[in-house]
Specification:
CCCH zinc finger; 2 domains; 22% helix; 0% strand; elongated; CPSF4/Yth1
Length: 167
């Protein structure tokens, strides 16, 4: 079991060779800190002040900086975090909230939505990869009943009766 993960954050993320499982409550409840947690004992987060187990600073994760000199939240360098989920980047992740990769929501590219983005993969906006026609074809193929017809067999030439050629 990874000791860093138990303390609240493992810098190795998914590359860590040790197990990342939550056996106890590892992070302080951000709602409890503000006096707003309604789950009480059923909450999956800690309800105690523990500076080693504080949640991440929302401002730092969003902007890369925090202007509050007395901020009690954890400031983690975004570069050291886990990599982005390739499925989520294409538009859909089958693992959903259980995915071990980062799900970053990006604003959709207006040019791409109109039909073409000149910046391609270098564009800072999101380019969803939804091939609607392929999805429709796959759905039709799956729904269409397959009819089996017996093949017609041609009679073999060996079974024909040979007739003399008349001159």
């Amino acid at each position: 079991v990874c000791e860093a993960y138990i303390r609240g954050y493992c810098p190795k993320g998914v590359q860590c060779p040790r197990k990342h499982e939550r056996t106890t409550k590892t992070v302080v409840c951000k709602h409890w800190l503000r006096g707003l947690c309604k789950k009480g004992d059923m909450c999956e987060f800690l309800h105690e002040y523990n500076l080693k187990r504080m949640p991440e600073c929302w401002f730092y994760t969003q902007t890369g900086e925090c202007t509050n000199a007395e901020c009690i939240y954890v400031h983690i360098d975004p570069k050291s975090k886990k990599s982005e989920c390739p499925g989520y980047q294409r538009g859909f992740c089958h693992d959903g909230p259980r995915c071990r990769y980062k799900h970053t929501t990006r604003v959709l590219c207006p040019s791409f939505l109109v039909g073409f983005c000149p910046q391609g993969k270098e564009c800072a906006f999101g380019h969803p990869n939804h091939d609607i026609e392929a999805l429709v074809r796959a759905a039709r193929a799956e729904a269409a009943p397959t009819a089996c017809r017996p093949r017609r067999r041609r009679p073999s030439r060996a079974h024909r009766i040979s007739r003399p050629i008349r001159a």
